[in-house]
Write a structure and sequence with these properties.
- The structure is a single chain.
- By secondary structure, the chain is mainly alpha-helical.
- It has one domain.
- It is about 70% helix and about 0% strand.
- The chain is built from 6 helices and no strands.
- The radius of gyration is 21 Å and the shape is elongated.
């Protein structure tokens, strides 16, 4: 009898998908809270003493509302880090599973799972390309879910309309923006909340599509969303 080479099994992805969805919901809530505080800052108006950062290294004492915004913003930053870890973990799992299901090498090598988000210019298309390639190779008989395009479009809107500025500017500078032009900040916040919601729906859709192709010998998915 000839020895048969065992086919690699699909990696468990349901748990990582649930973690990614929960993290995306958490980030959406964090960006909503940030927007609420920015609205409160705009409604209160800038104090007579001027912005917190008064130039030449001079910073006035923060008001209670400004100090609260620092806390809300820091919690949002922490939630974003948690979300990035959870999302990349899920992305890695479904990428591996797409290879098992199709036998095709991924279009993007594994370093791009990380580098695709941080390299300027490349980060405008590689993350979406990763997701699209995973779906194409793993579930070739189904069209790419529209929510993938919604997720990426909203992410790009948030990226170019204020998120990048908010990561390079200090929190005190963002507070000054809230006093002078809160609309730009709120537009970025709304786009990021939308991207988080669309991202959660995308994770659910791609995970369910892969689970539907799980070989019967491996057993049905446990706790499936569609059950």
């Amino acid at each position: 009898m000839k020895d048969q080479i065992a086919q690699p099994a699909l990696r468990p992805v349901r748990g990582t998908a649930l973690c990614a969805v929960a993290a995306l919901v958490l980030v959406g809530a964090a960006w909503t809270a940030r927007a609420v505080w920015q609205i409160r800052l705009a409604a209160a108006g800038q104090p007579a003493s001027g912005p917190p950062d008064q130039g030449d290294g001079v910073h006035r004492p923060l008001t209670g509302l400004e100090d609260a915004y620092h806390i809300v913003s820091s919690l949002g930053d922490a939630a974003t880090v948690v979300c990035a870890i959870a999302f990349i973990t899920w992305l890695w799992r479904v990428r591996d599973n797409a290879y098992v299901l199709s036998g095709q090498r991924p279009r993007y090598s594994w370093p791009w799972i990380y580098l695709g988000w941080i390299i300027p210019i490349a980060n405008l298309w590689i993350p979406r390309g990763l997701v699209a390639d995973i779906h194409r190779t793993g579930v070739p008989d189904r069209p790419l879910p529209r929510v993938v395009n919604w997720w990426w479009a909203l992410w790009l809107v948030g990226l170019v309309s204020g998120v990048g500025l908010m990561y390079t500017d200090s929190k005190d500078e963002v507070i000054a923006r809230a006093y002078s032009d809160v609309g730009v900040l709120l537009a970025a916040d709304a786009a990021m909340v939308g991207a988080a919601v669309a991202g959660a729906l995308m994770v659910r859709a791609l995970t369910s599509a892969q689970e539907d192709r799980r070989p019967a010998t491996e057993g049905p998915a446990v706790g499936g969303w569609g059950q």
